[in-house]
Structure formats: C-alpha cells, structure tokens
C-alpha cells in the first residue's frame, strides 16, 4: 500500500512539473502569418537575375492573356519602366512577358486536412454499411466538417483572393531568361485595383536585381 502511494505521489509531481514548464518554441510565423496576426495586408515579392540588363534598355512588354486585368498590368508595367528610364518598343531585343493571376476565395482551410467519418466504426450501430438508411445514429455529423460538425464545425470563409503578378524577361536573340520576378498577395483588406497599383511598382523597384522573398505592406 505504501509503494502504491509513493508511485501515485511521484506521478502527480511529474505531471505538475510538466504543467509548469514553458511552452516549446514554435517555428517563427511566415510573413503572411505575421501579417494576419497584426491585421495588416502584405504582398510577398521575390526576383531572380541571370544576366545584367543594361540601364535604359529597350523592352517589348506584352501578355498572352487579353483580360482587362492583364492589360492593366501591362500598361502599368510599361509606364513604370519608362519612369525608370527604360524604353518600350515592339522591336526591342528584350521581351517582357506579363502574367497576372487572380484566384478568388482562397480560404484558411485550403491546406488543412479534413477529418471525415470512416465507413466502418466497429459495430452495427455506427457502421453505415449495416445500418438502415436514415438511421439517426449514422446521420450524426460529429467529424465531417465539410457540412459543420460538433467536434470540428465548419468555419466561415475568411481567406482572401490570391493575386499574383509574374514578370519574365528573356533575350530574343538567345531565347534565354535574363530576369524573372514575382509578387503576390492573399488578402481581402485591399481591393484588386489598389493592389495592382502598389504591387507592380514594388516589384519593378527590383527590376534586373535578385531579391529573396520579402514582405511589403499594402495600404
């Protein structure tokens, strides 16, 4: 009896010490995660350079997409490059391809695995294959959060709209890329037009240069 009491005391003490330990260090939040915590909208910009682009070089700016969004991005890209001293010309030695992608309704559960009820639970009362159609015990939605569940209810959409602008410059003579850049945001705090107006100049501020993924605020 004394030994059992001792073991019980040691177990309780160990549990109390465990509760008193500080939480384990978590991985640092990504730029988007930190922005979500802070309640700010950000875009992530990155770029890769392969060979130098001479200052004032001539470029032919175009997009394979003829949508209004793509055309607006091409116009803004051309205007911003002109402000930086570059020349825009159809017969330029460099071609700049503009790609603008908008995916509406990218949500917070995009990469979260869903816990769905299995086909067999071990007895006839909860096994849909053996239960009569419409049986209340097999209609309970405890785990399937696609329709709302008691244990993991479906949450309302709070994600934003993924907006991505990619710029790729290649040498028409060699056919090789000389520079590629991309900027994207996933937010509903800033509308699409305002985002484009801020994102394109932010990306072109690093035109011809290399840049690791970097967060920039959107207003």
Please give the CATH architecture of the domain at 31-107 and 156-218: 2-Layer Sandwich
Low-confidence region ranges:
7-11, 14-19, 21-26, 31-39, 107-126, 136-158
Percent range of helical residues: 25-40%
Helix/strand-derived category reads alpha/beta
CATH class of the domain at 31-107 and 156-218: Alpha Beta
Order of helices and strands: HHEEHEEHEEHE
Form type: globular
CATH third-tier fold name of the domain at 31-107 and 156-218: Double Stranded RNA Binding Domain
Let me know the number of strands.
7
N-end to C-end Cα span: 69 Å
Query: Any idea what the radius of gyration is?
Result: 27 Å
Describe the protein in words.
This protein has 219 residues and is an alpha/beta fold. It has a domain of 140 residues: Double Stranded RNA Binding Domain. It is 27% helix and 27% strand. It has a 7-stranded mixed β-sheet with strand order 3-2-4-5-6-1-7, sandwiched between helices. The protein is globular, with a radius of gyration of 27 Å. The termini are far apart.
Keyword list:
single chain; 219 residues; alpha/beta; Double Stranded RNA Binding Domain; 7-stranded mixed beta sheet; 5 helices; 27% helix; globular
